[in-house]
Structures are given as structure tokens and as C-alpha cells.
Amino acid sequence: MENLLSFIPLDLPLIVQNLDRFLHGVWVTLGLTFLSLAFGGAMAVPLAIARASRHRVLNPLIWAYTYVFRGTPLLVQTYLLYYGAGQFQFVRDSWLWGPVLSQAWWCALIAFTLNTCAYTTELLRGAVMDTPKGEVEAAIATGMSPRGRLRRIVLPSAFRRAIPAYSNEVIFMLHGSVVASTITLQDILGVGRWLNGRYYLAYEGLITAAVLYFIIVFAITRVFRWLERRYLRHLERRRDAVVRNIAPPMGVK
Q1: How many Cβ atoms sit within 10 Å of the Cβ of residue 157?
Q2: pTM confidence score
Q3: Is residue 157's pLDDT more than 70?
Q4: Distance (Å, rounded) from C-alpha 187 to C-alpha 226?
Q5: Among 117, 44, 21, 15, which Cα is nearest to 74's?
Q6: Which residues of 13-38 are buried (b: 16+ CB within 10 A; e: fewer)?
Q7: What is the Cα–Cα distance from 240 to 71, expressed in whole angstroms?
Q8: For residue range 209-239, what is the model confidence (pLDDT) as tens digits?
Q9: pLDDT class for 4, splitting at 50, 70, 90?
Q10: Alpha-carbon distance 183 to 81, whole Å?
Q11: Spacing of C-alpha 13 from chain mean position
Q12: CA atoms within 13 A of residue 50's CA, in its CB half-sphere
């Protein structure tokens, strides 16, 4: 076993020795990622509805919000909140300063939530606007109210069709969570950087972090693959039917 480890250019015993730190980093990363996705997703639903309805007042305000947060890097947004908010006296004097805005974890969560909310808002807006007209017309013909159509027809259909695109947003948010390591939080990358700095290493911490991210992304893709098979099965059947109809008969080129 020792001869085998001598051929591996990594200090595996050191990694195993600090595995508890990496597990804590996984907990911090997953907590920040999925809490921001949950809060951002809940905020994005009404914003997407307002954008899709082209409300005269709300639509331009929401568009400006999504444009700013999608047009600037997440790192800049996090820095502005963590380092910039404390530059204002009224912020330091407010009740939010002590328990929230002075804490790195809360600043990261707020920045991540606002960022993913902007992306999810535009994603859902497109899904709502792409709802097939036939479904809406059928709901109107049955006498559904506008609120009933939105709750029972438009939103469920939009959520189902947004699953593939939203899986990318979840993975992007996970990757973007590495920003937390730049404001003193010990997420996965933060622990990897700490390990390299503590023991003057070049690869061990970063490669371990990369492997952990790979495992998490693999699990996320498996979950969304299952969701697609469960909720988009009717679209696969429709696509297969179209392919069969346009495919040439056997022996015809």
C-alpha cells in the first residue's frame, strides 16, 4: 500500500486528516447555494409574472433590476455588499448591521439570492410567455378566471418547461458560490486554499475541492435528469412521434 501511495503525486494522508474541514466546507457551500436558490426562486415567481404581463410600472423596474444583476459579476456584487455597505453611517447605525450586514455569511446569502433571483426571473418570464396558446384558450373556454389560469395552467406548464434551463442555473450558482471564500467564509474552495496555504502545497487542496464539486454536480444532474423524465415525458413522446412521422420509409433515401 505504501508503494502504491508513493506513485500518487498527492499527500492523501494529509487530505484524509483534514477531511472534517472539507465536510464543513461542503455544508457551508450547500447551505449558501440552496438557501439562495430557494429564496431567489420564491422571489422570482411574482417578478416573472409581472415581467410577462408587461405591467406598465413594475415591468421597467424589474427589468432594470435583472439587467444590473445579470450584467455585473457576482464577485463585484458580493464585495459591494460586504465591504461597501459598512462605509455608510446610517447602515452601521441600523438594526441590520450587527446581526446581518456585518456578517460574511449573511452578506454572501443576500448577494447570492439577489443574483440568482435576477436570472431565474428572466428564465421563468420566458417560460411563462412561451406557454402554448392552445392551453390558455382551452382554459378560457372552460370559464377559468385569469388567476385560475395562472395558477392551474400557466405556472405549472412554465415550471415543467423551465426544468432543463433551471438545472444550469443551479450548477452555475454552485460554481459561483466559490465567491464566498473571498470574504473569509470556509466553503469548499476556502478550505482547499487554507490547506494549500497552511502546508505550502500546490495541488492537494484545490484538487480535493474540484473532486467535491464534481460529486455535487453529478448528484444535481442526476436529480434533474429524473425530474425531466418525470415531468417532461409528454414532450419526449411528442418529439418521438414527430420523428416517426418525418422519417422516410425503409429502403427510401
Answers
A1: 17
A2: 0.87
A3: yes
A4: 28
A5: 117
A6: ebbeebeebbeebbebbeebbeebbe
A7: 38
A8: 999 999 999 999 999 999 999 888 766 655 5
A9: very low
A10: 11
A11: 34
A12: 17
